[in-house]
Amino acid sequence: MIRTLLSVLTLAAATALSSPALHAQEKIKLKMAEVVRSQFYMPMYVALAKGYVAEEGLEVEMITTNGGDRAGAMILSGQADFALAGPEVPIYIYNGESPDKPIIFCALTATDGLFFVSRAKVDAFDWSMVNGKKIMGWRPGSTPELYLEYVLKQKGVAPATVSSIVTNIGPAARDGAWVSGMGDFAIFNEPNFTKLEKEGVAHLVASIGKEVGRADYTVFFAKKSWVEKNAVAAQKWTNAIARAQAWSKSASPKEIAEAIAPFFPGLSIEENMAVVDRYRTVGVQIWAESTLMDKGGLAKAQEIMTVGGVLPADKHVAYEKIVVNDFAVKAQAKFATQ
Questions:
Q1: How far is CA 270 from CA 201, 275, 294, 303, in A?
Q2: pTM
Q3: Which of 87, 111, 205, 291 matches a 20 to 30 Å C-alpha distance to 147?
Q4: Which pLDDT score is estimated for 336?
């Protein structure tokens, strides 16, 4: 009887250990704040949709903040474990009063992914056409606005035009403002631009990213204390992103579009394919090919912030003080060739 009882208990224990419920409990649950929802962050959605994140043992809740400042606030307040935003956010925090400095631990995009568009169709665009026109930009101090102003200044656009950029329209209201007649030119991210282009109210004239070149644009970061306490989770997330980057390099636009479709329920597969194809053919590497943060890319990002008047030259943060590449190095060694 004792042997029988022990056998039953052993079988019950084995069954419990293999049950889906227990495995679900074993997953590391995280909260991640993404600055906006856009195909610009395609490798991240691929990592989630294709199960790479789950296979790493993570269960990640995404919170779309619609603003880098909000993403940073969620990190500081502990409402999110880590965030995806422009490097200006952790740089602002680093130079702030918080004693718990931010750490960038994984790269995602290699340059600006927004497009400069015109209300009227332009056959032969020249930057001089922008002089004296109304431009709808982004929130002051944000990555999109800083990169836009940098390009306009580099192209010799009149200072009066640059200083009069409209920056007080929130992300959620921009499409409606444009359709109602606000501005002659504007910057739009995806999928917003594709929707407006389809309606015939926006016409592509330039890629901001192509004009800027390599400048790390969106990164994953967290407070130093979180990274130190959750190194395993940070490594697992970076692994999933590296695996997604490797898969995306050879995947067709249709394969990518089908993978990320659940994150963009308002778009058809064909529309997602058009966005993916646009990013791939814009003439510059939009998505980072590696989870490694590029040293020159961070330097360029800080140069753009300085030109934009939001980061004094003596407040540039050294790469080694704000970037930890340990996770990226291990992830690349494991997944880069897959």
A1: 20, 9, 33, 38
A2: 0.86
A3: 291
A4: 66
